[in-house]
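[recover] target loaded
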């Protein structure tokens, strides 16, 4: 696992955009795995800026999002379909028919989840998967106790996640309790994982995920099993890491 500690959120987002840009420029038909939440907003803004100002094109890119709430229509302003349109898709040239976000409105969730896995496989697998980390250590909506081999499925959200996400809803009772999410096993099959975290609130869980034991209790710790995982943190999110000086030294020595 490569751990990069950036001085601030803007630098974290810009370093992440460098990784996405390098892939898309060298492989225009790349398959991106995308995430929602407040963490990747800076990355998406930077990608939109590079599209606008530096000719970065997503015309041949295919994307797959990690998750979606069950019961929210794509036009609901808290759905992840809506989030992706607002924060990324409407600002770049990725064809919408290539942009996959799980449906939370299917009448057969199990069949839908199977077809989502199939679509990822048919696209040739995900080249680069962007990830955030939840307060309870989740990646996508793989809550504590999720099998480290899990696949795309319906998952019940923990109280902690419902509380964390209630800031986006009028009342906590409006937060959906269920989501469709890629599994930990699905994520581990992607060719490169790029996890981002910022802010002091994430410091403890980031330290557990990176330096603690691999455990289904912190599903982000499964990235320790991934052959190519990059984690980019701001100073605050990195503040509880034991080896932070080592990670910084490694990054400084890295050839350009
Ligand atoms: P956040 O959410 O980016 O809003 O902190 C992360 C997550 O729950 O995966």
């Amino acid at each position: 696992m490569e751990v990069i500690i950036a001085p601030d959120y803007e630098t974290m987002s810009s370093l992440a955009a460098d990784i996405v840009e390098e892939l898309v420029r060298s492989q225009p038909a790349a398959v991106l795995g995308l995430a929602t939440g407040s963490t990747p907003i800076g990355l998406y803004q930077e990608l939109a800026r590079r599209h606008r100002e530096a000719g970065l094109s997503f015309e041949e890119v295919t994307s797959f999002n990690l998750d979606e709430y069950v019961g929210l229509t794509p036009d609901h302003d808290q759905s992840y379909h809506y989030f992706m349109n607002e924060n990324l898709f409407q600002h770049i040239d990725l064809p919408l028919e290539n942009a996959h976000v799980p449906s939370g409105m299917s009448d057969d969730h199990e069949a839908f989840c199977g077809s989502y896995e199939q679509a990822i496989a048919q696209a040739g697998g995900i080249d680069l998967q962007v990830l955030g980390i939840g307060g309870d250590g989740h990646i996508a909506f793989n809550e504590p106790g999720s099998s480290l081999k899990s696949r795309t499925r319906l998952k019940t959200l923990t109280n902690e996640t419902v509380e964390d996400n209630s800031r986006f809803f009028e009342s906590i009772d409006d937060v959906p309790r269920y989501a469709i999410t890629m599994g930990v096993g699905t994520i581990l099959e992607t060719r490169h994982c790029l996890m981002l975290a910022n802010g002091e609130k994430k410091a403890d869980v980031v330290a557990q995920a990176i330096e603690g034991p691999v455990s289904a209790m912190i599903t982000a710790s499964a990235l320790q099993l991934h052959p190519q995982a990059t984690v980019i943190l701001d100073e605050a999110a990195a503040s509880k890491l034991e080896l932070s000086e080592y990670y910084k030294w490694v990054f400084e020595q890295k050839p350009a």
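[recover] notes: Residues 9-26 form the longest helix (18 residues).
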